Amino acid sequence: MRLEEFMMYPDWVCRMALLPRYEWKGRQSPAEHYSLAKRMLLMLGIFHLVYHNIGCIMYAYHVDGTSKDPIRYVAELATVGSMLGFTIVGTLNLWKLLYFKPQIEEMLGDFEEFFKHVNVNVYRPKMYFEAYTRFLKGLVIVFCSSIVYYDSLPLTLMLWQHFMTESQELSYVIQSSTWYPWQIQGSVLGFSVAFILQTFSCQLLMASLMLSQYLVSFCGTQLQIHFDGLARQLEAIDARHPTAKDQLRYLVTYQSHLFKLADKVNHIFNFTFCVSLLTATIGMCFLAFSMTMFEVGEALKHLLGLTIFMIYNFTMSRDGTHLTYAVSLRE
Asked: From the CB of residue 235, how many other CB atoms can be counted at a distance below 10 Å?
C-alpha cells in the first residue's frame, strides 16, 4: 500500500472546494495543475465567506425589535446566531487549512517516511484503511446530500408557492439570514446574485469542515497503524536473542519519533478544534430553540443545520479520541 491511498477523499474534497491539494516529499503521483481561474474563484469564495460573518451580524442588527411577538424575535436572533456560529467554524477551519498548509505538508512527509517501513506481516494497514475509508465515505454522502438539500431549499420554496398556493407574490428567501447592500426581496437579479454567492460559500464552508475532519481522521489512523505495529514488535522481541537489545533500542527511538509527530498533529489542530467544538455546541443550542418557533419549512432547514452540527461534533470528538488513545502510551 501507499500512503497517498489514504488521501483519496481529502484530495477529492480539495478539488470540490477549488483548494490546491497537499503535496509532500515522497508523493508519487504527479502534481495537479492549479489554474489562475481556480485561484480567482477560491479568492471570491473566501471573500464572501468572510463577508458572510459580517452579513449575519448586520442582519441581526436590522432585525425589527418592535415585533408584537417577542418569542419570534428572540427565535430569529437565535437563528442568526446559529448561522454566525456555522460561518465562524467554517472560516476558522479554512484559515487553518491555508495558514498551516506548509506544516501539514511537512507532517505528511513525516508520515510518508514512517509508512515506507510498514511491513504488512507486522502492521495491519489494510484493516485500518478499510475502516478509515468506510467512515469517510459515509461522511461524504451525508455532507454532500446536506449541501444539495440546503442550496435547493430557496428554489423549492419558490416553486411550491408558485404551483401549490394561490399567492401571487414569491418569497425571495435565500439560504441563510444575511444582510446584503442590495435589494433581495422582489428583485430577481439581487436574489440570484445572493443565491449564487451563498451556494458557492456553502460549498467552500462544508468542504473546509470535511477536509479538517478528514485530516484529523487521517492522522489518527496513521498513528494507530504505527503504534499498533510498535506494540506487536515489542511483544515479539525474544530476550534470548543476541540482537534483542538493539531491537529494543530501535523501537524506543521509533516510539520517540512517533511522539514528536503526534505533538506536531496536536499543534496544528488543537486551537481550532477547541474553538470549533465550543462554537458548534452553542450553535446547536440556538438551532434547537429556533426550530420550535417557526413553521415547518423553516424548522426543516434548522433541523438540517442541527444535524450537521451534531455530526460535526461527533466526528471531531471521535477522531480526537482516537488521537488521544493513539498517544496514550506517553503516560
From this structure: 7
Contact 172, 184 (CB under 8 A): yes
Chain-centre distance of CA 282, in angstroms? 17
Cell 442550496 -> residue:
151
The whole-angstrom separation of Cα 173 and Cα 81 is 18
Q: DSSP secondary-structure letter at 235?
A: H
Q: How many residues does the chain have?
A: 331
Per-residue CA distances from 320 to 125, 156, 222 (Å): 20, 38, 13
Tell me which residue of 215, 229, 210, 166 sits closest to 322, measured CA to CA: 215
- Under 8 Å CB-to-CB from 75, ≥6 apart: which residues? 289, 290, 293, 294
For residues 174 and 198, is the Cβ–Cβ distance under 8 A?
yes
Are the CB atoms for 125 and 118 separated by under 8 Å? Answer: yes
Which of 289, 68, 78, 92 is CA-nearest to residue 177?
78
Q: What is the pLDDT of residues 137-177, one digit of tens each?
A: 888 888 888 888 777 877 777 777 666 666 556 666 677 77
Inter-helix orientation angle 70-99/244-291, to 10°: 150
Whether residue 2 contacts residue 28, with contact meaning beta carbons closer than 8 Å, is answered with yes
Report the candidate in 85, 87, 95, 56 with the shortest Cα–Cα distance to residue 278. Answer: 85
Query: CA-CA distance, 129 to 261, in Å (whole number)?
Result: 20
Confidence of residue 72 (pLDDT cuts 50, 70, 90): confident
Query: Which whole-number Å values give the CA distances from 142 to 148, 155, 280, in the listed order?
Result: 10, 21, 17
Using alpha carbons, list the distances in angstroms from residue 295 to 76, 79, 146: 12, 13, 20
Which amino acid type is present at position 59?
A: Y
DSSP 8-state secondary structure symbol assigned to residue 329: G
- CA proximity to 100, closest of 194, 219, 198: 219
pLDDT of res. 330: 46
- Side chain identity at residue 290, one-letter code: S
